[in-house]
Amino acid sequence: MNSFLVQQDSAPTNPTIVQLSSATRLVVKVGSALIADTETGEIRAAWLDTLIEDVIRFIARGQQVIIVSSGAVAVGSRHIGELDKRLRTGMKHAAAAIGQVQIMRAYEQSLKRRGFGVGEVLLSSEDLDDQQRRLNNRGTLQQLFQVGAVPVINENDTTATTGICVGDNDRLAARVAQMVDAGFLIVLSDVDGLFTEDPHGNPLARLVTEVRCITPEIEAMAASSPARYGVGGMVTKLIAAKIAMDAGCAMIIAKGSKSYPLTAIERGGPSTRFIPLNQYRGTYDVGTSQFA
Ligand SMILES: Nc1ncnc2c1ncn2[C@@H]1O[C@H](COP(=O)(O)OP(=O)(O)O)[C@@H](O)[C@H]1O
Ligand SMILES: N[C@@H](CCC(=O)OP(=O)(O)O)C(=O)O
Asked: What does the UniProt entry say about where the protein is found (predicted)?
């Protein structure tokens, strides 16, 4: 049997409803193009409100939700008049420092309207590599849940340079999911999921709805990002999927640009689901590495 299923017809829905309610803990990763308008760099506050409503609904049913949010550079660039250019490292740090404040303010305002607080957690690669730091971060996240604050994580961009950074929030989110033993990592992006090729390059590319094993064939589908602020494209999302699946966490990639993006996934909207071995209900032949 194939290790992935390609959606063959034009119906924009998944055949299986995703049971997000089954997880105690979820990590939701928000891509730059969702939080910041791609043309103006302005925060998409109305959209953010609908995401937060979804998050609060999950919390109300007893789940813990951690948000990993990109967008600091995209939002900050607008404030330093560099929206149209690829930024040099120093300028990127400045943009991130400015943008991060704006983003957190938007999360805070939206959560406050619903009676919740927000906790900003900025992580570097050392925070994830070092066991003691990982334990400290886990503890902090747990405390935030207890006091009714939703953790919003980003990479500590002002200190991140090549070699000492995670580099993209797909991997960061996967490592956070691993750190907190999340049941689901939901990657909200500007595409419905993994396609057989970059759909922006080939409109005939087909959506892959389910991946049980990241084979070289799957890896060959992924390209990097043509977007101005997106980092890594599908390449880093597949690396993230590997990290998550190895940790027993299912990962979902879905387009998050419309209102209530988590509700859309739960209602069976289009997505790619990466299912780890421990959640797969069929049989797996270790000898042939095949699913049946
Ligand atoms: N096989 C593929 N399937 C879907 N998207 C792909 C693929 N290969 C490359 N991409 C690109 O990846 C982009 C999403 O990644 P990115 O721009 O980094 O978004 P985000 O900000 O959500 O992380 C898509 O817009 C698409 O152009
Ligand atoms: N830490 C960066 C995000 C980098 C990143 O991975 O962006 P994206 O590919 O849009 O998730 C920022 O906040 O601008």
From this structure: Cytoplasm
